[in-house]
Each structure stands twice: as structure tokens, then as C-alpha cells.
From TrEMBL:
This is NAD-dependent epimerase. The lineage of its organism: Bacteria, Pseudomonadati, Pseudomonadota, Betaproteobacteria, Burkholderiales. Keywords: NAD. The keyword Lipid biosynthesis does not apply. InterPro entries: NAD(P)-bd_dom, NAD(P)-bd_dom_sf. Residues 4-319 form the NAD(P)-binding domain. SUPFAM superfamilies: NAD(P)-binding Rossmann-fold domains. Gene3D superfamilies: NAD(P)-binding Rossmann-like Domain, UDP-galactose 4-epimerase, domain 1. It comes from the Bacteria. It holds the Pfam family GDP_Man_Dehyd.
Length: 330
């Protein structure tokens, strides 16, 4: 099987590429290597992928550039496309909305068009738990209403799901969207809270704790996320039962989370333990675009693929802090 991963220099793309290559898949990866966060960590991820050998090709390409993306599809024949390229971040979408329109909307339409034109067997793409907005129904179920996003980032991810369904319906393009729930682990994104907390605690600097640490997140370790994606690759919509009464297209949406929300306060305690230091906390109010709780109902993913999250925060944070100290030479 030949796979194209977009956003391969990103956190999830990097780990997925390594796992697929180790499992003897042929993998091509593209990324625009933007400067949303330190490019050096993105380049280090690419070098780390190359270091394991296997059949891997990387090219610097932006999915929003239609011609450049088209050349990638012309040069190789892919069985599966995994679209992880996107402008991430809830708060940044308030500061720079045009970046989200360009990457998450224009770029995603370009991906859909290339998949349609090149008869791709399965498009798997990243959605987000952010689409649930302020929904009070817990745990979040893929069949509940998600028409009221509270950030532009969430709105673009909901738009991706709608556009994917259109292409599945009109062109019989099999698509699967994955609503990721707070992914963390080694080589993570430096803009994520756990990364910033670790950096500040180890350096003796204060951390900002939003909503007084009362928020809860369904923290999901990267290895579990990668396992879920690989399981989904082989479950092409149309070959499995469609539980959504509103569509008969080859289209699926799954939650992919740990199914065990943890309070932000508890999460910080685990980081403190692994760092061997107490955090200097500055309590802050809830930020615009944030939600109090995320909690994934993963029953459909379990039923269809046998997915089972295995890594709890104590083990996951321990691995992250060990990586962090090694990576930064502490």
C-alpha cells in the first residue's frame, strides 16, 4: 500500500509516518514547514523519519497551492491519502483567521479534488473535538448536533466534514474524518499546554492556569492516536455498516480519544511529579474559544476497528518529560 501523508512534519504526521514505514508501507510526505511554531522541531522530525530507513520521500509542498499539490499526485499513484495538514490552534484562529481559510478550507478542497481526480481508494482526514463547541451532552457522540462552533478553527474542521460528505455523495469518494481529542506525547507541538507547562516548571517560571484548573480534557497519547488511524485506513466506508441514518455515501466520522477526561489540575500534578518540581501557578479566566470539558464517546470506533486506548496520563507524561529533557539536553 502506498500512502501520502500531508502535514508529515507535524506532531501526528511524524509519528504516523514512522509507524507506517516500520510496518513496511511506502510513504510519501508533504509539509509546508510554516513558522507557526519553531521550524527546527519540524525539520528534526523529518530527519528522524529518514533515519529509520524504509521507503520514504519528503517534499516541501503547501496543500493550498493547487499546482504544486497536483504535481505530487501526478508523480505517484496513491492508495490512501491521510490529510493532517492544517493550521492548528483555537486561540490563534482569533488572531490570524486568514491562515485557517487558506490551509483548512482552500487546502482541503484541493485535497478533495486531487483524491477525486486520481481515484484515491480512501481519504482519511483530521477533524477535531473542537467541533462540539459548548455542547453539554457528555460524552460527545458523533451523531449529535455540531452546528454551533465557538472558534474559527472549529468551524473550519466542521466545514471539512461537510465538504468530505459532499465528495463522498457526488463522486463516491470514501472519506473518514477523525475528531482528535487533545493529543500529547514526545515531539509534540510547543504551543500545547503540557509542553509549555513542562518548559516553565523545569525552568522555574510561572504557568498560566486557565479556569483555575477546573477544565477537563480527554487527553490521548500519540501512540493510541496512531494505532487508531492505522486501523481506520483499512476500514473503508462502504465496507462497514453505516450507522448514520442521514447518509448512504461512503462516509464516516469517528471520535478518537482516551474516553477518560482528566482535570487540568490533575494533569499539572502529573507533570510536576515527573519534573520533580512544583509549578508556580497564575490562575486565569477561561479563554475565548475554550470549552470546559471534552469527553469522547469512542464506541463506534471500537465496534468498527477494535480500537482500544492503552496509555494513561501517568505513563504518557512520563514519556514526554523524558523526551523533553533529552531533546533539550537537560
Amino acid at each position: 500500500m502506498k500512502v501520502l501523508i500531508t502535514g508529515v512534519a507535524g506532531f501526528i504526521g511524524y509519528h504516523l509516518a514512522k509507524k507506517l514505514i516500520a510496518s513496511e508501507y511506502d510513504v510519501d510526505g508533504i509539509d509546508n514547514l510554516n513558522n507557526y511554531y519553531d521550524q527546527r522541531i519540524k525539520l528534526a522530525r523529518i530527519e528522524d523519519i529518514r533515519a529509520i530507513g524504509g521507503n520514504f520521500q519528503f517534499k516541501e509542498v503547501d496543500i493550498a497551492h493547487k499546482e504544486s499539490l497536483g504535481k505530487i499526485f501526478q508523480e505517484s499513484e496513491y492508495d490512501v491519502v491521510i490529510n493532517l495538514a492544517a493550521q492548528a490552534g483555537v486561540r490563534y484562529s482569533i488572531e490570524n483567521p486568514s491562515a485557517y481559510v487558506e490551509s483548512n478550507l482552500v487546502g482541503f478542497v484541493n485535497i478533495l479534488e486531487e483524491c477525486r481526480g486520481n481515484k484515491i481508494k480512501h481519504l482519511v482526514y483530521a477533524s477535531s473535538s473542537s467541533v462540539y463547541g459548548l455542547s453539554e451532552k457528555q460524552p460527545f457522540n458523533v451523531n449529535q448536533n455540531v452546528d454551533y462552533p465557538i472558534s474559527l478553527y472549529a468551524a473550519t474542521k466542521k466545514s471539512n466534514e461537510l465538504m468530505a460528505h459532499t465528495y463522498s455523495h457526488l463522486f463516491s469518494l470514501p472519506t473518514t474524518g477523525l475528531r482528535f481529542f487533545t493529543v500529547y506525547g514526545p515531539y509534540g507541538r510547543p504551543d500545547m499546554a503540557y509542553y509549555k507547562f513542562t518548559k516553565s516548571i523545569l525552568s522555574g517560571e510561572p504557568i498560566e492556569v486557565y479556569n483555575h484548573g477546573e477544565m477537563k480534557r480527554d487527553f490521548t497519547y500519540i501512540d493510541d492516536i496512531v494505532d487508531g488511524i492505522i486501523r481506520v485506513i483499512h476500514k473503508i466506508p462502504g465496507s462497514i455498516s453505516n450507522k448514520d441514518a442521514y447518509t448512504h455515501a461512503p462516509y464516516k466520522i469517528y471520535n478518537i480519544g482516551n474516553n477518560k477526561p482528566v482535570s487540568l489540575g490533575r494533569f499539572i500534578e502529573v507533570i510536576e511529579k515527573e519534573c520533580g518540581r512544583k509549578a508556580i501557578k497564575i490562575n486565569m479566566p477561561m479563554q475565548p474559544g475554550d470549552v470546559e470539558t471534552t469527553y469522547a464517546d469512542i464506541d463506534e470506533l471500537i465496534s468498527d476497528t477494535g480500537f482500544e486506548p492503552k496509555v494513561q496520563i501517568e505513563e504518557g507524561i512520563k514519556k514526554f518529560v523524558e523526551w523533553y529533557k533529552k531533546y533539550y539536553g537537560l
